[in-house]
Amino acid sequence: MSTFAIKNAIVVTCNENDEVIRDGAIIVDDNKITAVGRTKDLEEKIRECDEIIDGRDKIITPGLISVHDHVIGHVFKGFTEDGAEDYFYKHCFSMETFLNPENSYWFAYAGLMETLKFGCTMINDLFHYSQSTAEAVEDIGMKAIIQHKVFDIDLNNLQHKNYERFYDAGIKRLEENEELIKKWHNKADGRIKCWVGNHAPDTNSPELLKAGRELADKYGVGIHIHVAQTVQEHEMINNTYGMSSVKFLDSLGFLKDDVICAHLAFADTEDIAILERTGAKFAHCPVIMAKFGTFPRIKEFLTSKVPMAIGDDWVTLNPWGDMRAAIEVTRAVTGEALQYAIRAFRMMTIDAANLLNLGDETGSLEVGKKADLIVIDALRPNLVPMKDVIPSLVYNMTGNEVETVYVDGKKIVDEGRILAKDEIEVMRKTQSLAEEVWTKGGVWPE
Fold it and tell me: What does the alpha-carbon distance between residue 408 and residue 80 come to, in Å, rounded to a whole number?
């Protein structure tokens, strides 16, 4: 075991008082925080540390947490942004058939690199080849909750609105999700957790949704699912079952306080009341929803009792852009200043940790919590001059100001570089594998 201290820094705690300590210090013993406070008050303890780091002109914050991700979806950068839902169904779902365990590992690693270098220490990820994602998370040193993508339709048929069911194939995917839980849950020194990943209400039959609910109950883990995300899903569920996606899931007994619902773009007032009653949680992904041109009833959500936090989703994995979108798009669609910097920041730190049932372990810089933290260079033109720290970060950070990232007290990004693998090698490998997938999908060369 070893100890280190960072002193003379600005420390953003995200504690219950949102305390920001100027000329602050933090002490880490092995993987946990043992002291947080003013440097002058901790001088004696600091001198006893094995390593002392001068944090002058630095800002220390909790590691950021994204509650909805698909890091393997890095292969689709640039494909859906201008085509939105139409391209999503016509291109992405069909090209997912060209993924395999090897290329998925590299796409996952590249996605993890992006969000990690921008300050995310933990993600919540749902996709194919989930074990490849788990391997990439283990190798790079991050934390993650991972689910396997469970569905019982042919994804290629979605572009034709064909929802023919293949239940046995769906059960096989659910069995693969169970294998993921058996092999990876609480592995990598506890950095990896595994939940159940029913993909969406329209891509899962009622029977498969019930089976996913039973599997989550069996292992005492959560469920991560897309809900009320697209026009197509919204119309299919209403036309087939005569109710909204939220009401449909509730009618099956699917919704509980261990379920995270991503997007909820078409959830209405009654749906929000159901989420409040069941305790189900909301993963808000403002960037991808703004690209799709659909946005949830954000005023109602922000004033409701539905627990909510922010997710990256896919292709653009910049948590600082997510926070700004959560504020700015909300103001644009409501005409009101309902969202603000401190709340958005909490929605990617302590609120996100609470959403994932890990608020006692991470999400803030407090004694006894895991040492998941980032160090930001405050002497950047976009951050100077700085009056109020959190608004300055939320409104002006690009992410490239993140210099150092610690997970469980271990440094995994140093001077802005990933330590686990050579970044250039990863990016060249990822580009080459992506071109192979695009070629098979008929979209490359351009």
Answer: 35
From first CA to last CA, the distance across the chain in angstroms is 53
pLDDT of residue 361: 98
Burial class (CB in 10 A: 0-12, 13-18, 19+), 31: middle
Type of residue found at 303: T
Interatomic CA distance for residues 253 and 210, integer angstroms: 8
- Nearest CA to 131 among 171, 183, 188, 169? 183
Evaluate whether 103 touches 174 at the Cβ level (below 8 Å). no
Segment 363-377 mean pLDDT? 98
The CATH number for 64-355, chosen from 3.90.1300.10, 3.40.50.10260, 1.10.287.110, 3.20.20.140, is 3.20.20.140
Give the 3-state secondary structure of residue 263: strand
> What are 25-80's pLDDT values in tens digits?
999 999 999 999 999 999 999 999 999 999 999 999 999 999 999 999 999 988 77
pLDDT tens by residue, 427-436: 999 999 999 9
Is the Cβ–Cβ distance between 317 and 106 less than 8 Å?
Answer: no
423-440 vs 101-117: helix axis angle to the nearest 10? 130
Degrees (nearest 5) of the Cα angle 274, 275, 277? 65
3-62+369-417 has which CATH code? 2.30.40.10
CA 19 to chain centre: 24
Tokens linked to 8: 């003379």
| pTM for this prediction | 0.97
SS3 14: coil
CA distances from 196 to 51, 314, 343 (A): 41, 19, 29
Q: DSSP labels for 40-89?
A: GGSHHHHHTSSEEEE-TTEEEEEPEEEEEE-GGGGGGTTTSTTTHHHHII
> Rounded to 10 degrees, what is the CA torsion of 353, 138, 317, 67?
-20
